[in-house]
UniProtKB/TrEMBL annotation, chain A:
Gene3D superfamilies according to UniProt: HUPs (3.40.50.620)
Coiled coil: none
Organism: Desulforamulus aeronauticus DSM 10349
PANTHER family referenced in this protein's UniProt entry, alphabetically: STRESS RESPONSE PROTEIN NHAX (PTHR46268), UNIVERSAL STRESS PROTEIN UP12 (PTHR46268:SF6)
InterPro entries on file: Rossmann-like_a/b/a_fold, Universal_stress_UspA, UspA
SUPFAM superfamilies, per database record: Adenine nucleotide alpha hydrolases-like
Protein name per Swiss-Prot or TrEMBL: Nucleotide-binding universal stress protein, UspA family
Domain UspA: 2-140
Family, per entry: Belongs to the universal stress protein A family.
Automatic annotation (TrEMBL), chain B:
Pfam families in UniProt: Usp
InterPro entries: Rossmann-like_a/b/a_fold (IPR014729), Universal_stress_UspA (IPR006015), UspA (IPR006016)
Chain ranges of the UspA domain: 2-143
Gene3D superfamilies (UniProt xref): HUPs
Protein name: Nucleotide-binding universal stress protein, UspA family
Family statement drawn from the similarity comment of this UniProt entry: Belongs to the universal stress protein A family.
Length: 140, 143
């Protein structure tokens, strides 16, 4: 079973990793991919640095580091995982990755979704949930 | 031991949620499954209050329907020789599902959903939306 874990370094996405780690221990047939969607245009760059490319690289380095750390959690348990790093709108990239690469399941973190704002403006997890056909597990 | 709370209603999505949990049992042996269905008798009574039915009759009918929904889903597990527990509760569906999951220290809630897009569900709160907001444990949504 191909499982996609969108990972942005947040506490909730850490919980999602640990949740998968736990189930992977008694469920060796999982084919796990951790996906980080980051640094879309690095909009902050213009204000702070002369060279936006440099800022984008710095941003990607940072998230590559956190993605490596996430992978290391699984390596430590002897569980193989793949990693993917993409940029763009987080929800859209997650949705297209699920479709294009034929994932069977998405497991992701969620923050408190109780606020009306989150629902009207559309949180990433809500958007993913609405647009993929495969089961989605949300972990707090 | 992995305690799964499978929330069902009469929908097609609930059937797919049952299939999903059934698949889980083929891969994991230590699952303890409870099939839960929530009836909302107060809501049904309010709906039917203009018709001259006795409240007790309405309640009995709602409970009977609820039992039938549970039995229909449970029979799928039984056909596959998998033992499941069942629970029928009365009240607000999302609140009851989450409360029961907390009380029983369930590890995971599984439920069928039509998605969360419509404005009505945003404003009034669909069951899946509310379960998601209230629950502490992981929730899997099946379409």
């Amino acid at each position: 079973m191909k499982v996609l874990i969108p990972f942005d370094g947040s506490e909730a996405s850490q919980s999602a990793l640990h949740y998968v780690l736990k189930s992977a221990k008694n469920h060796r047939s999982l084919d796990i991919t951790i996906l980080t969607v980051v640094c879309n245009e690095a909009p902050f760059a213009r204000d702070f640095v002369a060279n936006p490319t440099e800022a984008l690289n710095a941003c990607q380095d940072f998230f590559r580091g956190s993605l490596e750390k996430a992978k290391a959690l699984f390596d430590a348990e002897g569980i193989q995982v793949s990693t993917l790093m993409k940029s763009g709108d987080a929800a859209e990239v997650i949705i297209s990755t699920v479709e294009e690469q034929g994932f069977d399941k998405v497991i992701m973190g969620r923050r408190g979704l109780s606020s009306l704002t989150g629902w009207v403006l559309g949180s990433v997890s809500a958007k993913v949930l609405n647009n993929v056909d495969v089961p989605v597990t949300l972990v707090k | 031991m992995n305690k799964i709370l499978l929330a069902v209603d009469g929908s097609e999505n609930a059937k797919r949620a049952v299939d999903y949990v059934l698949k889980m049992t083929r891969k994991q042996e230590d699952l303890m499954i409870t099939v839960i269905h929530i009836i909302n008798s107060q809501k049904e009574i309010t709906k039917l209050r203009n018709i001259s039915s006795e409240i007790q009759d309405i309640k009995e009918r709602v409970v009977k329907n609820g039992m039938e929904i549970i039995e229909r889903h449970v029979s799928i597990f039984e056909n596959n020789h998998i033992k499941v527990a069942t629970k029928l509760l009365d009240g607000d569906p999302a609140t009851k599902i989450v409360e029961y999951a907390k009380l029983g220290e369930y590890d995971h809630i599984v439920l069928g959903t039509r998605g969360l897009t419509d404005l009505q569900s945003i404003v009034l709160g669909s069951v899946s939306h509310k379960v998601l907001a209230l629950s502490e444990c992981p929730v899997t949504f099946i379409k």
